[in-house]
Amino acid sequence: MTLMTTLSFVMFATAVDAAKEDIPLNMAPDSVDDDYEGCSAEMSKLVNKKYLPSEKSDTFAEDWRKAEKAIQEKGMKPQFDNLTMNHAIAIRLYTDNKLNIYSDLIKAVRAGKKYYRTTFQYRALHFLLIDAIQRLKPKQDREMTVYRRARDKFNLNPPIRFGSFTSTSSESDLTQYGTKSCFVVLTKYGAKVSKYSKYPEENEVLIPPYEKFRIIKESSDK
């Protein structure tokens, strides 16, 4: 598995009152962090012929059908963004946080490196999201300042990775996702996915698991 070496920047703010729990932020050594450099074409074939048919029937069949229907009803043409229909469906599926697949995928990616080749259940979805981010990025800004709010308090150990797919937004006021912590992130590898998102109004930028960040400031709201 390959790792990007360029460090992006994070400014971090947390409320002074007690949060739900203290969560360590580090290099997430157990995460599935492959960026598929040099093997994306081969992996794409495996996904289409093997992993996706298997996972759709065993892991997230009903959720996939719902996401596919939503994309089709909107009459979207993902080919104009250098995406396939499967890429668009994967983004829609991931961004619908009311589906079980959302939290299940995040947990599996964060801790799945050791069992990726054996029992990891999301090879297709992991690849489709990574590949979609990488296909969308070239036509977007090289660097973007985005925000991520959270309900938890974090213990920081720079440099860091978020350890899974990380939803952020160009909007700073999405307090429905938490008021305890707010990350101000300069991402170099994240891509805008709002066009295919369940919530397009949130202007979502999706950050891949392998992006590294350097913390440049931490502050507390008094």
UniProtKB/TrEMBL annotation:
Protein name (database record): NAD(P)(+)--arginine ADP-ribosyltransferase
Catalysis performed (reactions): L-arginyl-[protein] + NAD(+) = N(omega)-(ADP-D-ribosyl)-L-arginyl-[protein] + nicotinamide + H(+)
InterPro entries with a match to the protein in the record: ADP-ribosyltransferase_ARG (IPR050999), ART (IPR000768)
EC number: 2.4.2.31
Enzyme class: transferase
Signal peptide residues on this chain, from the entry's feature table: 1-18
Membrane spanning residue stretches: none
GO MF annotation, one: NAD+-protein-arginine ADP-ribosyltransferase activity
Keyword NADP carried by entry: yes
Pfam families cross-referenced by the UniProt entry: ART (PF01129)
Taxonomy, superkingdom: Eukaryota
Classification of source organism: Eukaryota, Metazoa, Chordata, Craniata, Vertebrata
PROSITE patterns associated with the record: TR_MART
Family: Belongs to the Arg-specific ADP-ribosyltransferase family.
Keywords, alphabetical: Disulfide bond, Glycosyltransferase, NAD, NADP, Nucleotidyltransferase, Signal, Transferase
